[in-house]
Amino acid sequence: MSQSKPDIRAYLASHMREYGLLLALIAIMAFFQIMTDGVLLKSVNITNLFLQNSYIIIMALGMLVVIVAGHIDLSVGSVMGFVGALAAVMIVQWDLPMWVAVPICLVVGGMIGAAQGYWVAFWNIPPFIVTLAGMLVFRGMSLWLLEGQSVGPFPREFQALSTGFIPDFFPLSVGENIAERLGVRRFNTGALSLGVIAAAIIVWLGLRGRARDKAYGIEGEPIAFFIARNVIVASALIFVCYKLATFRGLPNVLISMTVLTVIYAFITEKTTIGRRMYAVGGNEKAANLSGIKTKRLTFLAFINMGVLAALAGLIFAARLNSATPKAGFAVELDVIAAVFIGGASMSGGVGKVMGAVVGAFIMGVMNNGMSLMGIGIDYQQIIKGLVLLAAVIFDVYNKNKQG
Amino acid sequence: MTMLLEMRAITKTFPGVKALDNVGLRVETGEIHALVGENGAGKSTLMKVLSGVYPAGSYDGEILFEGQVAQFRNIADSEKMGIAIIHQELALVPLLSVAENLFLGNEVAERGVMNWPRMHQMARELLQKVGLDESPDVPVGTLGVGKQQLVEIAKALAKDVKLLILDEPTAALQENDSQKLLGLLKELQGQGITSILISHKLNEINQVADRITVIRDGASVSTLDCRAEEISEEHIIRDMVGRDMAHRYPDRERNIGETLFEVKNWNVWHPEHRDRQVISDVNFNVRSGEIVGIAGLMGSGRTELAMSIFGQSYGRNISGQVTLRGVEIDVSKVDRAIEAGLAYCTEDRKELGLILEESILRNTTLANLAGVSKGGVISDGEEQKVAEKYRQAMNIRTPSVQQKVVNLSGGNQQKVVLSKWLYADPQVLFLDEPTRGIDVGAKFEIYSIMNQLAADGRGVVMISSEMPELLGMCDRIYVMNEGALVTVLDADEASQERIMSFIVTE
Ligand SMILES: Nc1ncnc2c1ncn2[C@@H]1O[C@H](COP(=O)(O)OP(=O)(O)OP(=O)(O)O)[C@@H](O)[C@H]1O
Ligand SMILES: [Mg+2]
User: Fold this and answer.
1) Region A377-395: what's the mean pLDDT?
2) Which chain B residue has its CA at the smallest distance from A214's CA?
């Protein structure tokens, strides 16, 4: 064995998936931007995209952890619907204040996760079965809770969970001034500045990471790729925030979604608990023999999923401004598809938070774009199914080529 | 002599690694050709190229089989030509019966309907040929490794094989099974079957090989003819390693102290068959600075003993006492056992030792993440430093610690498992077949590490089926037989014969 210097080609080959995903998202957006005559990237529609997909993305974070740990959760759609129903009953029918009802809902979500995770972790019952049962049980329970009716409307402050916007923290006159110069109706200076700050932080963290890698002699991303990736990500971020600024500003859900994504990316990539989660999914027996509490971690992954499904349920109910028996129906499929499109492996141990989020956006943009084009729900399903299949085939093909 | 196989100027690269660089191999019809080289030299890769695992076009060079240029697109192609490979990792389906495994993918059927009576009869003939006295109906998973190996060979014979490739077939076998297998190779040679044998056990190679090709760093360095003259093991080693190796076992200053670790009245029952006692009344101790061996046949309960002590990861109804420096320690969970200062380096690296799809780096730090993290947050830099340190100390051959362990050669994978446990910094380290599948040079390195641990005042327990290694390394050797320790021998009174006498008489 002689060592040839790892060149750009080799690097590209082993990171094909990540770049491919980003490029796929860009290509899909470009496609729909053209096909919808520019409606896709209009301020209103971008705002809608976030509102429509936030709950999927939030659940995808939990699902990624579950799938990385080598399991699956089919119950999330039902759990989400059930918690939304629970919130409606507590807030609308019992007049409980929000600060009581919301924590209760999150705890209930955690308990549902625990109840399912218990059988998976400590009894070794296949998660497919346990959560399939859960899917039926909680669908039934939300029907029962709601007595088959829609319950609403919610008070304003609850709706704000989803449809609220961050107010401009710059003086109003600044925004008016800019709006006039740009020839738009209004301008949320705060929104744009947050976008610029976030972009700057991303670039700065990237540079810092590179410098540290170099100091420790870690072979990192080739500089050209690093620059290209950062330019794309930063300008996309600023562009989106600019667009949102010319409408109503940054939606609350965008902030919660972003914060959660950052937290989960950090936990999965930088902490010991995250590392152990990957180990459990990669080889449970070996992880166990390395002193990792594999059962407890599995249990935890399901509890976490339950809490996030509950949060998603609240956000969804807040957006619809009512809880309906059909809420969350078949949503688990979108969530799971997002995670697999994002590069996670069915057998566990592989997958990234950012991948799952981009995967969810790909699904979201396709849903939105096809609806804008007036494509019927029938074709939408077919196309989404094929995209999922293509993504997974791409994975397998890539892996075979490397091996 | 006619050439059955010629591989010319084979070059195979993986991203970042040139595994084979202009390798040539010529195998004569009817010979037993040995392929030797250090871990990661490229032996397995060369055989994968030959058998179509890496299809034509994914490597440079030319393969001539029976004088014809061969371009295999997959394994099926090479099998059709009469080439059968038995991989380093066995590829049998444990839940299927012997007969089903023998004809897997090669079923005797008429219009899609299996002809079971015919297959049974053929299976019996094949089993007889390889000297395996088992019913074709038993599930393969219930057989020992040695017998599974014979099933693999029978499977190859079922396909009308001309060239049989065996990649480290005896690594997991004990002496008498190995002998049986080598005898079988000779017998098959008599029937005109050519074989290529990869092994790190040079005595075996000397015993059966007609010619030996030595590969070093992805290039063939020499082909030695054993028929003309006796080739000494030293000669082979010199070609493999590129230098002389005076000793097989490193020297060591013995500095043995007080009793460090003690196990008393240890009893373990089988996890499924509750009335079967696997370990009965075992007592043993390790003094600080001591290397203690456990000899015994496969299935005598050595692995079960170690695993039941290490966090009760085997067995049920475990009773007994474990003390470290005279204080009883809690070993009821793996993390507690590690915390208390124990480590167990498994014999089954793929199933129990490694996370194959993850990097060397992540595998190295897995059992001691606390060492590279603060407040639960991992420091990438620290982790890199640690992994790099062990890569160099263990001489793991790979361009980077970011390489996935699944892409390493078998021997180098073993070194990653060892790194993991060394980094966990144990007081007492159990090593279960630590040198299985490891080349002479790397064995020496592992022995040196064991000596180093002992010199630091730690205790080492070595479970091994290779008696010369136990005799060469250990201060005392316990002999295990059917779940009990039947005797303990001091190094100076132990010999292969004495150990065997305790194993056999019981
Ligand atoms: N799929 C792969 N990707 C990257 N590198 C690989 C891959 N397969 C093998 N290698 C590298 O090629 C080299 C040769 O490996 P190979 O398995 O042929 O060694 P070997 O001689 O069989 O060693 P051992 O005696 O340890 O089994 C090693 O350095 C290994 O890391
Ligand atoms: Mg090999």
Assistant:
1) 86
2) B381
Residue with the larger pLDDT of the pair A1 and B7:
B7
Q: Which fold has domain B3-241?
A: Rossmann fold (3.40.50)
- Three-state secondary-structure class, residue B260: strand
Q: Could you say which of 3.40.50.300, 3.40.1550.10, 3.30.1330.40, 3.20.20.140 is the CATH number of the domain covering B249-341+426-506?
A: 3.40.50.300
With residue A152 as reference, give the H or E element that holds it: none
**Domain residue ranges of chain B, discontinuous segments joined by +:** 3-241, 249-341+426-506, 356-425
How many alpha carbons lie under 13 Å from residue A210 in its C-beta half-sphere?
A: 14
Q: Does B264 touch chain A (CB under 8 A)?
A: no
| Cα B43 to averaged position of ligand 1 atoms, centre (Å) | 8
- Which chain B residues have a beta carbon less than 8 Å from that of A10? 15-16
Nearest to B431 by CA among B421, B423, B441, B440: B421
Q: Which residues of chain B are modeled with pLDDT < 70?
A: 1, 505-506
Neighbours of B207 (CB within 10 A): 16
Kindly write down the DSSP assignment for every residue of B295-359, as one continuous string.
EE-TTSSHHHHHHHHTTT-S-EEEEEEEEETTEE---SSHHHHHHHTEEEE-S-IIIII--TTSB
For residue B397, the distance in angstroms to the closest alpha carbon of chain A comes to: 8
Q: Ligand 2 mean position to A299 CA, how many Å? A: 38
- Does the CB of A288 have a partner CB in chain B at under 8 Å? yes
Provide the whole-model pTM.
0.85
Contact status, residue A12 vs residue A280, Cβ threshold 8 Å: no
